[in-house]
Design brief:
Length: 226
Amino acid sequence: MDEEAVTDVRRRLREHPSAILLVCQVGAVLFYPFLNDAPVGRTILGVVSMLVVGLALWAVRRTPALNVVAFSLGLPALVLTVLETVSARDDTVVLISSLLHAPFYFYVAVGLIRYLFHDTHVTADEFYAVGAAFTVVAWGYCYIFQAVEVVWPGSFSGLDASADPQTWFNLLFLSFTTLTNTGLSDIVPALAHARSVVMLEQFTGVMYLGLLLARIIAMASERRNR
């Protein structure tokens, strides 16, 4: 590959941070089942998680969000990602990590949504930001589920009786099915606190879809008026 082609690839990557974030999030979902729960798998997952957090920080820099807030939440989340990889069975580490990751991902999601609404011209990266914002919200609620599971053990139950407490990937699966309102998950909230959080995510999923539809209709109307 010549120097001009490399420069073009770098330029495209800089112009589409949301696309890279989305691809990384989807890739983590697809490759996680191959990692199992072995130490090597947890290490690889930790590296991928750090990469996702770093990409989220990079992506949110292009949005109207406050970078200082994003970095104040994101950098400690990176540190806790490493600690959680080493001490996956330590409830204190898992709880603190979850309580840092959740607000960070939600803040990134808010930044991406504001990015979608900040002008009347839709760019290619804004299309990718639609998917990236969705996956980021799913990640955020997954970490809330994980925190709830640590504080109130047995909050989530499923057909897999061996998964007690529920694994992070099981909770991510529950988060995606809840956010999309498909109701296909075999994992259910068993305790009151878990059900409260699940209801909030269901509401978030409906509102996210409503915001996108309102945005599309408003842009179509404005273009027609012009």
